[in-house]
Amino acid sequence: MLSLDDHPSGRHFLQIPGPTNVPDRILRALDHPTIDHRGPEFARLTLEILDGLKKIFQTDGPVVIYPASGTGAWEAALANTLSPGDRVLMFETGHFATLWRKMAARFALEVDFVPGDWRSGVDPPAVQAKLAEDKSHVIKAVMVVHNETSTGVTSCIPPIREAIDRTKHPALFMVDTISSLASMDYRHREWKVDVTVAGSQKGLMLPPGLSFNAVSEKALAASKSARLPRSYFSWDEIIASNREGYFPYTPSTNLLYGLHESIAMLLEEGLANVFARHARHGEATRRAVRTWELELLCSNPAEYSNSLTAIRLPDGHDADRFRRIVLERFDMSLGTGLGKLAGKLFRIGHLGSPASRWASPSRACRIARAEFRRRWSIWRRDQLPRAKRSARAFRRKPAAALHNRSQRPIFTGIPPARCGSDSSPA
Ligand code: PLP
Known about the structure:
By secondary structure, the protein is of the alpha/beta class. It is built from 15 helices and 14 strands.
């Protein structure tokens, strides 16, 4: 008899906090044919994406896209704004803050790393005290991880901004939103963040492989005098090429198709609804955990993450063994404990593409209607002039027009998410 453990049937449940489930609509967008990245169609795609990204980051400044995972965007944030020997202020909120600090040290930056317990977020009074002490403005940047993916703790950004402002300190403010963007409210411009770091594989519902820097005027000015070595990650050439809709290197064309679709999905749903949905899923998960009588890692309810929940197992229980059993029995992947939390906890990701969206008939109808309208307008723009020409040709020479039609269909069908084999001729 076949073992269930080795041959699970049905859908795999990817409940790790990123990469998240890629919805079918994005998968269909990804499998369009790759086009010329120096052609006019590509330029249109890029300009639409850059415009949409501003809405997602809530900024009016540039958003730089990298064909790299989130770590690449971390590096870009440092390399574009700082010089060797610069002092930066960072906070030990968990594994990812620790990794970003390690990277800063490798770039010969001097890191003032405020210790933390991995159960709570950045303390704004601590930020204020550190900056107030720094009378000669040696600190060049304050760097914070908005949502610590290793702990399920969200640091509140506006009070940190206020703490910086109260000291009138000129340090740049950099925020890692890799597991919060497009899941929790985040406002690059209003919160006066100078560099926002983000990645594709979480709230944006894309596969891994793209990452982002949203950049303020102040950060752009800092980049003019920053002396850390940079080439591929340099903002200036990318921003200059982006103005025309291009990149200074070969971009990830198909991931950009996916990003275009992801932005459309998020804006159709409305960012406020996206954030409310994540809040609902976060609260539902926490209530379930309490019912199981297990302990949340996050010690402060005001800092509970809405994109993931980290759950401690009682002493003497191996969290990785538990995860293995869940995978074998239920075909569900849960997040592992990272760094010093290895084996002690598991994490449930509840960010990104929602199954529940389709469970709500009214919302599904709204989305279907928006999608139909979008496709109809694309068809009118791209196909209608050609269809009219063919109709005129048919009136003049019916036999020749029919012959032409069988060679080259004039109407590729309304659903353009996949052009080609499944399209139906008129
Ligand atoms: N920062 C945070 C908060 C993360 O969650 C991650 C990855 O999960 C990273 C940085 C590193 O990003 P990547 O693994 O995409 O390079």
